[in-house]
Structure formats: structure tokens, C-alpha cells
Design brief:
- This protein has 121 residues and is an alpha/beta fold.
- The protein has one domain (2-119): 3-Layer(aba) Sandwich (Cytidine Deaminase, domain 2).
- It has six helices and five strands, in the order αββαβαβααβα.
- A five-stranded mixed beta sheet has the order 2-1-3-4-5, sandwiched between helices.
- 35% of the residues are buried.
């Protein structure tokens, strides 16, 4: 998570994703780091690490892609909101659970003590 935080600090938007050692950054309000990572992934069974819990758009894309089996995120959506970021309150787990038939994607919070500082205003 340390490399992601360092990369995110240099980016216009404080979010970064990492898959298989490659780091991806937000490129615009619609091309979040997770979306950029998905566009560059081959195969299935990947773990994606992100500095913040994926928004509903990104989590849905992760599920639809079928490429990622585990997502590790730093700052949670409720914490983003608490820190003053304009953000949907729909949690990533709720997005995963809304799909039928259900896909199993492991969702784990890791390192919020490192990532929360990115989002403090």
C-alpha cells in the first residue's frame, strides 16, 4: 500500500490502483484508477489494491470484467464521506451482492492508516 500512496500523492486525484506490480492512476472523473487497471489486465484471478474503496461504477466494472478475484482497499466509503469527499454511499460489497448470479470477489480493507491522509481536506 505504501507504493500506491506515494503514487497517488503525485497524481491530480488522490487515488491509485495496483495489479501485478503495475500502478494505475485516476485519469479523469470517469476514468478512475480501477477502470484504467481493468483496461490493461489480461487473464483472470487478479488481486487489485486501491487507495480507496471502489465506487459503485468501478466495483460494477470489476465484477463485470471477471478478471479480479480479490480487492484490497485503504480508505472506506464512509470515511471518504466523513472526510468531506463527494461520494456515493453505496458500498462495494453491496454492489457485488447485487449481481445475479452472484460472483465471489473477496473484499478486504487494508492500511487505512496509510491512505486516509490522502483524502483529508
Amino acid at each position: 500500500m505504501e507504493a500506491l500512496v506515494a503514487a497517488a500523492r503525485k497524481a491530480p486525484w488522490p487515488c491509485a490502483a495496483e495489479v501485478d506490480g503495475a500502478i494505475y492512476l485516476n485519469e479523469s472523473p470517469l476514468r478512475h484508477a480501477e477502470m484504467v487497471a481493468l483496461e490493461n489486465l489480461e487473464g483472470v484471478g487478479h488481486t487489485m489494491r486501491v487507495t480507496a474503496e471502489p465506487c459503485p461504477m468501478c466495483m460494477a466494472a470489476i465484477v463485470w470484467s471477471g478478471k479480479v478475484e480479490r480487492v484490497e482497499y485503504g480508505t472506506s466509503i464512509p470515511r471518504l464521506i466523513e472526510l468531506g469527499h463527494w461520494q456515493s454511499s453505496i458500498r462495494a460489497a453491496d454492489v457485488i451482492n447485487s449481481f445475479a448470479p452472484r460472483r465471489t470477489i473477496e473484499l478486504v480493507q487494508v492500511g487505512p492508516e496509510l491512505t486516509d491522509a490522502l483524502y483529508r481536506r
